[in-house]
Amino acid sequence: xxxxxxxxxxxxxxxxxxxxxxxxxxxxxxxxxxxxxxxxxxxxxxxxxxxxxxxxxxxxxxxxxxxxxxxxxxxxxxxxxxxxxxxxxxxxxxxxxxxxxxxxxxxxxxxxxxxxxxxxxxxxxxxxxxxxxxxxxxxxxxxxxxxxxxxxxxxxxxxxxxxxxxxxxxxxxxxxxxxxxxxxxxxxxxxxxxxxxxxxxxxxxxxxxxxxxxxxxxxxxxxxxxxxxxxxxxxxxxxxxxxxxxxxxxxxxxxxxxxxxxxxxxxxxxxxxxxxxxxxxxxxxxxxxxxxxxxxxxxxxxxxxxxxxxxxxxxxxxxxxxxxxxxx
Amino acid sequence: xxxxxxxxxxxxxxxxxxxxxxxxxxxxxxxxxxxxxxxxxxxxxxxxxxxxxxxxxxxxxxxxxxxxxxxxxxxxxxxxxxxxxxxxxxxxxxxxxxxxxxxxxxxxxxxxxxxxxxxxxxxxxxxxxxxxxxxxxxxxxxxxxxxxxxxxxxxxxxxxxxxxxxxxxxxxxxxxxxxxxxxxxxxxxxxxxxxxxxxxxxxxxxxxxxxxxxxxxxxxxxxxxxxxxxxxxxxxxxxxxxxxxxxxxxxxxxxxxxxxxxxxxxxxxxxxxxxxxxxxxxxxxxxxxxxxxxxxxxxxxxxxxxxxxxxxxxxxxxxxxxxxxxxx
DNA sequence: CTGAAAGCGCTTACAG
DNA sequence: CTGAAAGCGCTTACAG
Lengths: 328, 328
Known about the structure:
Order of helices and strands of chain A: HHHHEHEHEHEEHEHEHEHEEHEE
CATH class of the largest domain in chain A: Alpha Beta
Low-confidence stretches of chain A: none
Number of strands of chain A: 12
Largest interface: A-B, 45 and 45 residues
Shape of chain A: elongated
Strand content of chain A: 15-25%
Structural class of chain A: alpha/beta
CATH topology of the largest domain in chain A: Rossmann fold
Mean pLDDT of chain A: 93
CATH architecture of the largest domain in chain A: 3-Layer(aba) Sandwich
Oligomer: homodimer
Helix content of chain A: 40-55%
CATH superfamily of the largest domain in chain A: Response regulator
């Protein structure tokens, strides 16, 4: 097998304690023995078993991050932000992608639990009846889902949605479609409520479609429904759906913008690359990721009875080429 | 702190051994005591410390996956394939994204090493002088990079590249641009060699640009260079660069297809969504991911002196809307 | 079927 | 500054 601390101890003629200190807590050992130990350890090809170290030290210097779907462009910016923040605090990030299988979340979280110092779960899809079990795996913070007694970072959809609806009504649209996201998605419920409220406030008629999965193909499928319904403007649950919608409308010769206005949500990197460029509601995913790191690491050394923090972040509309005045 | 095995043992009046078996190796214990133990453990909210379990059992049931950049659409299909295969073999996948910082790869691999049963490193960017150290963290398999004595899955670029160049020359193009990827990228060297060979074989003139990072913005930047050079056809290191190139050309009123032909590499999901749709060389990332899982898990229980397997996979051209006959 | 003991590979008070 | 000892929370031969 591989070289252990005991092997190095034997080779140096010192105790395991001293070797351990020379490697992990250098100040506590005589400089000359320290260097001797380190050299011998290196020569022997000693690589500390970080599992064992974590078990005794009770620390991993790792943050665990669980996301629903790494392929959804909404998540990479969050992941990058989590990594940037965690790195700046000396932690490594390990990611689990549950591939939109909500039932797996709890299992993955348990697998990670002791291997990390804290868990960030983005948009937990975990069914309600298991959510409490997930929340127990503290330190843990939810992004985009609230549970009493659990730390969370919440992105408030209402401002951005209000701006989107105002933008459309200002362009003359009176009938607005909303493409629902996944049926049980917490985010979709938030967005659905927000669009209903905003349309009611603006006196616009709202027609809902879906639910749709947050994938391009779902948007492609939505396109024909939307067009058949005669909507002049539509807001999609997310950019993936909006992009699929646009692709299919393009294909059918329906001009996005002039013929039908489309608004996405997430302001993902692709929204500026699409044709036409996609008007989208910016969701501060990066800020949310950074905030989640701060919270979960604070939690790690907070007393158990401290009230778990809840941070709120706002959204706003980014206008691009896919929205135009109502045709005719 | 949390409930330990010893706590449960005390509560049941049994030894830790029996409790351990009741939970992890149920067949070795009397059914009635087994159920009693399990019930009490559940009631006490016992959650086994998987770190400790892994340390003694020497198994994690986890596969570690290291990728250069999760936001690059080339990687998610590989990740998904790795997960699908690993799941079917009862393993969980933990992902590390090194965010295009090659120097971090070795460190991340070490952090993961004992927490997983095997490591898959996709497109290792690790500098040559550290690569051997990385390769020592066995069981490990590289995807898209070769190192003697190390298991790997290699995607052979030459077939797809030859098809791409043939396609362009058949359309009448005589001067073909190639947008290089990152300078030290192993993949770029492979692709560069392949395009040089293919152009030489077809008697086409090759003009190289770059290096460019595999990002949309780099493609945007490349667009003006390419257009100024008078190329009628260009092959990009990857789809990201190709998409950025197309976006900028669109913006300048240069029609991709009729005015200039563009070919990407990777056949990422977005290539079918772009405007126009992007002709691209399909790279069998999913197959590579699945193969890597098979190899790394085999390695885990292979004798140390077994020759590490090397698997080769082929590429092919997918023709879409971004390539047309040479103008004029 | 169950238990006592040793051990996985480290770290960390506690002495000296 | 260094070492002996106990311990982190489990698992697993070995006895019985």
